[in-house]
Amino acid sequence: MTNRNRDPSARAEVKFEDESHLPNLFGAYDKHLAKLEKEFGVSLASRGGNIAITGPADSVAGAETALRWLYNNAQAGHLIDEGKVRDAVRSTRFGHVDTAIAIDVYKNPINPRPGAQSLYVDTIRRSKLTFATGPAGTGKTFLAVAVAVEMMKKRMVDRIILSRPAVEAGEKLGFLPGDLREKVDPYLRPLKDALMQMMPADMVERRLSNEEIEAAPLAFMRGRTLAHAFIILDEAQNTTPMQMKMALTRIGEGSRMVVTGDPSQTDLPPGQRSGLSDALEILPGLKDVSVASFKAEDVVRENLVAAIVSAYDARQRRVSDPSI
Question: What pTM was estimated for this model as a whole?
Answer without folding.
Answer: 0.66
